[in-house]
Amino acid sequence: MSWLGPVYKREVGKPQPFFPFGPFQFRLPFIHYRFELPDFIQGLLMCAVCLGIIPVLQEYLGMPFEIAITIVILNGFFYLWHSHLGDPVVPGWITPAIPLLLLWLKTFPEGVTRMHALIAFELELGIFSLILGMTGLAKRFVDLVPDALKSGILLGAGIAAVRLVFQHGGRFDLYPWTITISIGFAFYILFSNHFKTLRSKSKLLKHISDLGLMPSLVLAIFVAPLVKELPWPTIQWGFTIPQFYTLFTEWTPFADRIGWPPFSLYMSAAPLVFAVYIVLFGELIQAEALIDEAREFRHGDEDIHFDANRNNMIVGIRNIGMSMIGPDASMCGPMWAAMQVVECERYKHGPEAMDSLFGGVASFRWGTFTGYFFSPIVTLVKPILPIALSLTMLVQGYVAVRVGILKARTFNDLGVAGIVAAVLITREAAAAFGVGIVLCALIYGKDFFRNWNQYDKAKDPVFNSRIGEE
Questions:
Q1: Does residue 404 contact residue 96 with C-beta atoms inside 8 Å?
Q2: What is the pLDDT of residues 90-131, one digit of tens each?
Q3: Of 43, 259, 349, 450, whose CB is crowded by the most CB atoms within 10 A?
Q4: CA 227/CA 178 separation, integer angstroms
Q5: pLDDT by residue (tens digit) across 376-399?
Q6: Among residues 282, 289, 270, 293, which one has the least CA distance to residue 145?
Q7: pLDDT tens across 313-349, in order?
């Protein structure tokens, strides 16, 4: 499929070609990156996960299905911005923070007041992220925060994601057999050493592995009705017609019945914005770790790095835009962790599997964006939307815990991380961040302010030896 290849070829060890565009790197499909067909196909079905926010918008904001799916389509358009502006990630929701936002929204009466609260929160979060990215403070945060605190945020976010599925009355209680069988299959093809051995010997298994979570969703479509947990899908033909006019004139701050939130709501949203950014910050750490790990597997054939400042600017623009034209309870986050893992795992298999990480993540998001418009796809996956959401939560939780543990360098790091994670789950993100700072200050003293990227703790007698040597 040579026609899928880019016009501009990458030199070995160099960045993927791009047009300079201020702080961004502008890339076009087929011009600057190879269009990856397996990732596009996977995206067509994985749009089911993005559609999973529709029941939340209907329940908490009273939106009709047609308005909710229009918001999903707008969000999907903004998803495309990351890879085409130089950010090699699969963007997504700020998933672990969704329960925090929903809990806060429920403190407001349904209707205009609750919409005002969501608009104020999302606009403020966008401005905060944009300022951090433009000033360069986002990258400094990632570099300066101690490994113990990074580890704790990742551990807590991972456990919180798993908790959403398994908490009493949660999705697992409603669909135990479907979730168990589907997630078991997903973990096997994504992470199993045994499957990796089989994959190397079979082209069919290699293609199945390249599709990531999609085979598990296909399995769920059949398993759910067979175990009588969900109905068979009712396929409808045609195309989704977005209701942009109705959305803009009835559900945005420009609508007469909604209007702009009062200043008091922006003040009320400020603590939650800070708490959610801490969760977002954890995803920045995770994105950097996943991309660094993937680059090392490719032995430097592509010079690819994660820039937290660039990511923050795009996240900020997305949240500001959605707050004005399509307020969304899923929020606009820096990374869809489950799919970033899938893309990075495919990327590790070499240029034959995926030429550039930019091509992989862009092709995937083109797939999800296309899938929203095909009624057969939407109606096929509509019954399993709760399962799709559960699968991405569990994979995200698994990866966040794995990366969080690896971020800890000493036993002291692990101890602090455990406390931070526990506070994050039982209290709130802001409290966890505060506890982590106090513990790091007490345990590490003046070394809290070191450059943690360059500081070799193994040579400092103040610290325990590295975990691997103990």
A1: no
A2: 999 987 778 778 878 988 999 999 999 999 999 999 999 999
A3: 43
A4: 8
A5: 988 888 888 888 878 878 887 887
A6: 282
A7: 999 999 999 999 999 999 999 998 778 888 898 888 8
As given in the structure block, the two tokens for residue 418 are 């455990």
